[in-house]
């Protein structure tokens, strides 16, 4: 085209970078297209060169990891007490969510959950006594993830608590998780009142034996199949578990009825599950954990096998860097808050439940559950775009977990920290929100992007292994 012809043609503007330039054109009626692009994260040039020089090796390692993750076959095989089955569990050990942390740095809801656990275990008679014991040095703390376990929100696991046993039949490893208490004033959100402890005792003495007998009668429950069905029914099995809980209920109910000790107990157990739409969360988490753990310890892999938050720090672990944690400050979610609460009341992001996103579920599959984005005034199209963006930073697409609204495309699976840094796109997470003070409980639910710092550190740590 001649230069004169160019200036006589209608110009089409494509803007890269700051959206404010397009907004200025919009204000004067000039058509423009905004390209969703950001420069790479600022990392040491030598480390970036090292990663690019080993691109083929990294891609091959990532294929091995994602193949293991996608091949996982998580099934519920039983229930037991934490002390009896969780590796390394001790009477004075309390497991928590997220990366390692000491009592002096713990947030309010984590402290509240630990205080509740100590009273539940009979080691303290009051919140004050529990807090004193927790800070005394007599109690040990460790991340759930370092004991093949996961826990929502504060993630507290103490010795007497019943846990689900989820076995990865493809690779033989097992993951553990406590039973879900419901919403509101519950231990995992840092509440510790008498009603909270009473509910936990009922779960130990009534719910746990009933479920244990029912699962033993069934032998196994295929969780991967339930999750795949739930995605087709409006769940993403992190912040929305209504369909998955209903499917689980259908699988369990006949066995609960036929093995129940008496009609009233059976009715109480069934009603507890029926009224708790989040009951399946504590199975989607260990199902994800069991699959991701199978992908650990593959040299040269930049795939994340853990994203976890303790309410203070956000932590990441990679398949290619062993047990190393890469951490940074946790952020406060954007959320829909319960009446009387605002963002000023919220604790920073907390919980092991981002293991679902790490496994291609939760926020990565939010296109299957668009109702969730309404928490923050979003639309169904926003949900589609959140999921589409996550394909940019993942190493694979799931071969079983599919999204109907994306023409049954597999969910984006296997977060690649190299892609996170090169494209400057952060993982998208949906989550519950705890009050920042111990004892209050849940105050809302919402969404957020993972913070940059842990992924930048993970990239740098990974690059140095090359």
Structurally, the number of domains stands at 3
Biggest β-sheet strands, sense, barrel:
4 strands, antiparallel
Q: What is the CATH topology of the largest domain?
A: Enterococcus faecalis V583 fold
Give the CA-CA distance, first to last residue. 49 Å
- Residues in β-strands, percent: 15-25%
Which whole number gives the mean pLDDT? 93
Number of strands: 17
| Count of alpha/pi helices | 16
Supply the CATH class of the largest domain.
Alpha Beta
Examine the secondary-structure arrangement and name the CATH architecture of the largest domain: Alpha-Beta Complex
Secondary-structure blueprint of this entry?
Blueprint: H1 3-8, E1 13-16, H2 19-27, E2 32-35, H3 45-53, H4 55-71, E3 74-81, H5 82-85, E4 93-96, H6 108-120, H7 127-134, E5 140-143, E6 162-168, E7 174-178, H8 194-218, E8 221-222, H9 223-231, H10 242-259, H11 263-274, H12 281-293, E9 304-310, E10 313-318, E11 326-329, E12 334-337, E13 350-351, H13 355-358, H14 380-390, E14 394-403, E15 409-415, H15 417-423, E16 428-434, E17 442-449, H16 452-465
Parallel strand pairs: 1-2, 4-5
Antiparallel strand pairs: 3-6, 3-8, 6-7, 9-10, 9-13, 10-11, 12-17, 14-15, 16-17
Helix pairs in contact: 6-7, 6-8, 8-10, 9-10, 10-11, 15-16
